[in-house]
């Protein structure tokens, strides 16, 4: 059994402790030959400071495990465009060029987010695979976890209160309940 001492300025949640413990136990089993393949850790990010904090936290706290026995995947979802407003504003005929332009902008943002994440990983000496998919972020993340055989999913928490979360939904809450692997939700200190 490994014991982690947490010296950062924010408190570590029970879920974070549990995910770290499970990850280290799996690493120990791999060293002793009970798991054959490298583990895959996926950090799902977006343009928010919260997701970049989760990536930094992962690189600082799980760096040795990732560097020695895991592959790191950085994932971002390109949101489905809501073409309803485009359709309405163009009086019923949405120009195909406008749709391609919106999709192109979403792709540019996603690629910029992934490039920034690769630079952050590089500063920590980690090479990461980057992936982007089009879709509702919570569904796209859970589908990627399954498709890529991810063993640990790391997400940032936007820190919304209960009321906002009830109205707006929560990607991290959805993934914690639906992803087919352990989920580590990293909350940025206030």
Automatic annotation (TrEMBL):
Tell me the Pfam families matching this sequence.
Usp (PF00582)
Domain spans labelled UspA: 39-187
SUPFAM superfamilies in alphabetical order: Adenine nucleotide alpha hydrolases-like
Source domain of life is: Eukaryota
Q: Which residues cross the membrane?
A: none
Q: Which residues form the signal peptide?
A: none
InterPro entries documented for this protein: Rossmann-like_a/b/a_fold (IPR014729), Universal_stress_UspA (IPR006015), UspA (IPR006016)
The record ties this protein, via PANTHER family, to: ADENINE NUCLEOTIDE ALPHA HYDROLASES-LIKE SUPERFAMILY PROTEIN, USPA DOMAIN-CONTAINING PROTEIN
Q: What's this protein's name?
A: Putative universal stress protein A-like protein
The organism that produces this protein has a lineage beginning with: Eukaryota, Viridiplantae, Streptophyta, Embryophyta, Tracheophyta
């Amino acid at each position: 059994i490994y014991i982690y001492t947490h010296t950062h300025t924010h408190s570590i949640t029970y879920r974070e402790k549990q995910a770290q413990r499970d990850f280290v136990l799996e690493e120990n089993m791999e060293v002793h030959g009970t798991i054959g393949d490298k583990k895959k850790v996926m950090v799902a990010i977006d343009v928010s400071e919260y997701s970049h904090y989760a990536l930094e936290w992962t690189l600082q706290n799980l760096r040795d495990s990732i560097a020695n026995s895991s592959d790191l995947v950085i994932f971002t979802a390109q949101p489905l465009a809501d073409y309803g407003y485009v359709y309405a504003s163009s009086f019923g005929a949405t120009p195909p060029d406008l749709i391609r332009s919106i999709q192109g902008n979403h792709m540019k943002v996603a690629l910029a987010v992934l490039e920034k994440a690769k630079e952050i990983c590089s500063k920590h000496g980690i090479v990461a695979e980057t992936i982007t998919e089009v879709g509702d972020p919570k569904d796209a993340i859970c589908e990627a976890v399954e498709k890529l055989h991810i063993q640990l999913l790391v997400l940032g928490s936007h820190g919304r209160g209960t009321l906002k979360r009830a109205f707006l939904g929560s990607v991290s809450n959805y993934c914690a309940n639906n992803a087919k692997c352990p989920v580590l939700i990293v909350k940025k200190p206030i």
